[in-house]
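User: Please predict the structure of the protein below. I'd like the answer in structure-token form so I can feed it into my own downstream comparison script.

Assistant: Understood. Taking the following sequence of 131 residues as input:
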Amino acid sequence: MVSLRKPLPPYALLTPGGQRIYLPDLKGKILVLLRDLGLAWALTTRQEELSALEAQAFLLSQEARESPLPLLLDGEGNLIQAIPEQGALIADPFLEVYHLGPVQDAEELLDWVRFVGAQCPECVLPEAEWL
């Protein structure tokens, strides 16, 4: 199950070519997962900013289709169902989920990426300490 402020489960996804991608293999950069094709197209115009923020973005789909971003196939839809339509999942470089909800446009998505990039995991009290 995908939850805020929890690590992503170690799902295995596929590329359209059949290569298996494990989410833990994507550690090291901020991870952006989208399910909305329009938002994916909007984000491609901001690829330089995304790269400068040390983030990587993927479009999720249950079947192969045209995509402006690298496409990851979630055949069973487990991860896709966790992300709202016109929404995004944004995780830190350690794959802890910081945003799992709607985003209006590429600018708001990049704002979330900037926010996640500014976090210091060693500096934050555990969730139970600040709730």
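That's the full token string. The two ends are 21 Å apart (CA to CA).
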